[in-house]
Amino acid sequence: MNSVNLELYLVLDPVLCGGEDGMVRTALEAVRGGCTIVQLRAPGWKKRRLAECGRALLKALAPSGTPLIVDDHVDVALAIGAQGVHVGQQDLQPQDARRLMGPRAIIGYSVSSGRELALCAPLVQEGAVDYLGIGPVWATATKPDAASPLGLAGFAELAARRPCPAVAIGAVNAGNAASLAGAGADGLAVVSAICGQPDPRAAAALLLHAFRQGLSR
Amino acid sequence: MNSVNLELYLVLDPVLCGGEDGMVRTALEAVRGGCTIVQLRAPGWKKRRLAECGRALLKALAPSGTPLIVDDHVDVALAIGAQGVHVGQQDLQPQDARRLMGPRAIIGYSVSSGRELALCAPLVQEGAVDYLGIGPVWATATKPDAASPLGLAGFAELAARRPCPAVAIGAVNAGNAASLAGAGADGLAVVSAICGQPDPRAAAALLLHAFRQGLSR
């Protein structure tokens, strides 16, 4: 299993960030505020645009060493040399992603239920998956096709059985960050808690502070 | 440049074919009627479904040696071991597709204007592109986001300058097949002229017959 710092996982939203330039700016500010890993996710975009934006993000993130994860598109990740890919239950199988990306790539997988989680253990054992995104914890507007929310108790139940590190996702914000740390999250995945915020750097710092407070309780 | 028989290029439409099973049946019947190459194109599908359908098509097409081309998704093509990929102007760059797919893969590229065609010659020279899809020749319902139609004269103008073999696409049918052969097409790319037809095998044979008549004039 490749080790990765999941503490504050930013999922960039092209609309909330206001396009490519805004995505790069948001990512850089968030990293200055403590964000540890960045995902490029733009389900409505064609791949040429994704690749261009991804290359700009890679360049911007290189000095800090922050890994860039591409949502869904293994081919875009390979073409631009991103550090990893995140796949969902309807995307390519994690085993296929691993075979194409090689052993050093970071591969994440989305899990929304106990049944899906149970099927993950062998994927982690065989080295296909490095981390999980467990959610949505709460209902979110930034992913209209998401599964039904788990709630905090439902998240804690899944997190207790996680076979590898996992981030909590779905309406995560500074107000619930500490409770998620207490519920077993290894990190927070956020969209609107950073994207579109007036000060993404301060927003990131606040999230991280709240999460760490929850860990130390 | 990898050599490929483009004479009758079937682009499978999941709706017209009635889902996965219908796509496999349509492809097999079309091949029996003379179809030389098959493309899997389902823009609304997620990749796990695409990969599953693609694997079923590969298995069905293997005995005849008919190549399977995946539209847009280089990662799906790689994951399932398809013979090639077709990219459009907004998809991954053909050079990226070539780098990821290797020298033996069949790589096609869509061209809709003289400007786009002019930019293709170096791509062909450097070995990134094996064939072109030139169109739409006429307006078509099966690709709502297509560029404006070229018309037969416009197609002929582009085909005369093609730096590699090219198929005509866009409302191609048995009635206009001969004229496209006369206008310089190396093959016909069809969707609704085969998909959803009561007898896809007979439809393919009719298209091929008309195209060859046009060539021999």
From TrEMBL, chains A, B:
EC number: 2.5.1.3
Pathway: Cofactor biosynthesis; thiamine diphosphate biosynthesis; thiamine phosphate from 4-amino-2-methyl-5-diphosphomethylpyrimidine and 4-methyl-5-(2-phosphoethyl)-thiazole: step 1/1
Cofactor: Mg(2+)
Keyword annotations: Magnesium, Metal-binding, Thiamine biosynthesis, Transferase
Highest taxon in the source lineage: Bacteria
Pfam families the record matches: TMP-TENI
Residues where 4-amino-2-methyl-5-(diphosphooxymethyl)pyrimidine binds: 71, 110, 143
Domain Thiamine phosphate synthase/TenI: 8-194
Claim: Metal-binding is one of the keywords in the record: yes
GO terms for MF: thiamine-phosphate diphosphorylase activity
Sites where the protein binds Mg(2+): 72, 91
Record-listed 2-[(2R,5Z)-2-carboxy-4-methylthiazol-5(2H)-ylidene]ethyl phosphate binding positions: 140-142, 171, 191-192
Catalytic activity, reaction form: 2-(2-carboxy-4-methylthiazol-5-yl)ethyl phosphate + 4-amino-2-methyl-5-(diphosphooxymethyl)pyrimidine + 2 H(+) = thiamine phosphate + CO2 + diphosphate; 2-[(2R,5Z)-2-carboxy-4-methylthiazol-5(2H)-ylidene]ethyl phosphate + 4-amino-2-methyl-5-(diphosphooxymethyl)pyrimidine + 2 H(+) = thiamine phosphate + CO2 + diphosphate; 4-methyl-5-(2-phosphooxyethyl)-thiazole + 4-amino-2-methyl-5-(diphosphooxymethyl)pyrimidine + H(+) = thiamine phosphate + diphosphate
Cofactor note: Binds 1 Mg(2+) ion per subunit.
Enzyme class: transferase
Record function comment: Condenses 4-methyl-5-(beta-hydroxyethyl)thiazole monophosphate (THZ-P) and 2-methyl-4-amino-5-hydroxymethyl pyrimidine pyrophosphate (HMP-PP) to form thiamine monophosphate (TMP).
Record-stated family: Belongs to the thiamine-phosphate synthase family.
Protein name in UniProt: Thiamine-phosphate synthase
Gene that produces this protein: thiE
